[in-house]
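## Example record

The block below lists the input lines for one assembly entry, exactly as stored, with component labels intact.
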Amino acid sequence: MSDAFIAVDWGTTNRRAYHIDNGHVVSSERDEMGVLSVPPGGFPAQVAALRDRFGSLPVLMAGMVGSNRGWYDAGYVACPATIEILAAAVVESEPGVSIVPGVSVDTSSRVDVMRGEEVQLLGAVAAGLAPMDAMICQPGTHNKWATLQQGALIDFTTAMTGEMFAVLKAHALIGSEMGGEVDADASFDAGVAASADEDLLAALFGVRAASVLGRRKPGEAAAYVSGLLIGSDCRARLRQSRQTVHLLADGLLSRLYTAAITSVGGQAVVVDSHASFVAGITRIRDLMR
Amino acid sequence: MSDAFIAVDWGTTNRRAYHIDNGHVVSSERDEMGVLSVPPGGFPAQVAALRDRFGSLPVLMAGMVGSNRGWYDAGYVACPATIEILAAAVVESEPGVSIVPGVSVDTSSRVDVMRGEEVQLLGAVAAGLAPMDAMICQPGTHNKWATLQQGALIDFTTAMTGEMFAVLKAHALIGSEMGGEVDADASFDAGVAASADEDLLAALFGVRAASVLGRRKPGEAAAYVSGLLIGSDCRARLRQSRQTVHLLADGLLSRLYTAAITSVGGQAVVVDSHASFVAGITRIRDLMR
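Predicted structure tokens for the full assembly:
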């Protein structure tokens, strides 16, 4: 019996599908058919189309497809979560099509939720890409900071760092100054340094004041604001010095978070997020059979 | 010679006009003819219309009417600013019509700007409504925290507290949970308490998680977010305990800031903002003659 299957990392705005056989990616595709782009009742047809392309295989999905805005609400398992617990809680949306649940923090003092990131997080550990005891950061719209202990996801915190940047750029008064490119440059570093004041609301207005008084070059504000937000996020998480953070990111976000983590006294180790997802979803599939 | 004049507090979206004689308000009006509602070249006609209603008197204005988006850029005077310095820097936009400049903080380490608030701040002190040495807070879209020393405005900080609330409510994912009423209630207090973590980006996402997990009643999130933002703002400003803050606010903002300032260990004293403006603009007018 072949252990080939189709794995789908199905987010709000994007989707990544993999044809996996014996733990190896045979082929993959990425498109913008996120759950918000699928019309009501349209998920079975989407899965049929995936099977037309990849073969008539079992399908295992993770991400927002398992939310109340997706196909079928797969619920949450509470921390501490392991890959075995996730595999045992997988639900079927139709025969041969399964969805991995999300993970929650649900204590009297604090609540949090993730959906989709858990496969990458536990997959990184399963694949040996991150140690059994680790702090792992997944930068994005809703940035996840996860604590792994003995291979289990015991706690995590979500920061709306990416969404805050997007909302400020599109809708705040300072958005009109934020047209420039963002990279891990001197303006970004200045923002990270300014985040040490722990006074985000005042620092953000400072962008406007600097513009009015001609104290910052046009085009530098976007990187500064990015540094301010990512710096605030990293400082709130890295309360002990020399903390190592495993970073599930590539491209620009990998550069920005590496720079900010280093600036605030931590060490960043970049981990391949696609390999982590493939390792995690394959391990869940193996445990289901 | 009568010392009657027309004073206008002319902001971005609102305008308040006063007919003042011998320091007393004869009549006043408030409308939504902020500078953004005045068509290009339309300011002289607006002033003529004010004179039709209040009499053919000299006009003295403050606020965004003196910005590059208003009638005539009245510039800024740098801190430390006194009411005498403001009066000496008043500019004429046409004969008999004058505009008070804004105030800036412009040092190598920090910049900030205000325009319009300076008349209230220095007026509060001139009228004896606030002491010569005071911390004064003017809540609003861009919240001002001013340090007065020996009657001079020596420093201030602007926090985008009000704008942040509005932008989150209108455009963030958590905005859909923020439909409820805001008041100084238990939800607001919980937000102020949560702001002690100094982790705004994570606390804001927590609003979403609490909603997904059913841990906060619908309608309570708006007051909680308001408490989180105003609490963060007050904590960043009240670094010493038992600090007294004079609050130029009325209505809801007065209640919210009084509650937050008290929660974080300070003392709030509410000051009449309209009386402060009238005292300040009258003093500037007297010094000009």
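The two ends of chain A are 11 Å apart (CA to CA). Chain A has a mean pLDDT of 95.
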